[in-house]
Design a protein that fits this description.
This protein has four helices and no strands. By secondary structure, the protein is mainly α. It has a domain of about 80 residues.
């Protein structure tokens, strides 16, 4: 018995169009994520975390490029980086639900940042 590879060459499509669209590819990606996570972690959470991680990496790259390379002030670099990361995440999520999630995320982040800065950064030194 001999084992050999037999190549298959596709010919050009003569009639019709391919049914392989972005939705089909995304469904396949979701299926792979679901199988990889073993059904323990919801697929939506994995995708949500992945998109958020991509936004974080982009945010940090823009922040580093502007603040350390271009010598922009930290505040200006942070504002531009945050806007870039949030816009990137919004464009990936898109739609009304994504817009609502983005608005809620900005509101929560604003309150959180204010609270943390009030406690840690802006607190007054106590006289000794």
């Amino acid at each position: 018995m001999r084992v050999a590879e037999v190549p298959y060459h596709f010919r050009a499509r003569r009639v019709g169009v391919s049914k392989l669209e972005a939705n089909v590819e995304l469904e396949y990606l979701f299926l792979l994520v679901d199988k990889f996570a073993g059904g323990v972690i919801p697929t939506r959470f994995v995708v949500f975390a992945l998109i958020g991680s991509l936004g974080f990496v982009l945010h940090m790259a823009v922040l580093a490029a502007l603040h350390f390379e271009s010598r922009a002030s930290f505040a200006a670099a942070q504002i531009i980086a945050a806007f870039t990361g949030m816009t990137f995440n919004f464009l990936l999520k898109a739609g009304i639900a994504g817009c609502l999630a983005g608005i809620c995320g900005m509101a929560i982040t604003s309150v959180w940042n204010y609270a943390v800065n009030t406690v840690l950064t802006w607190r007054r030194a106590r006289p000794v």
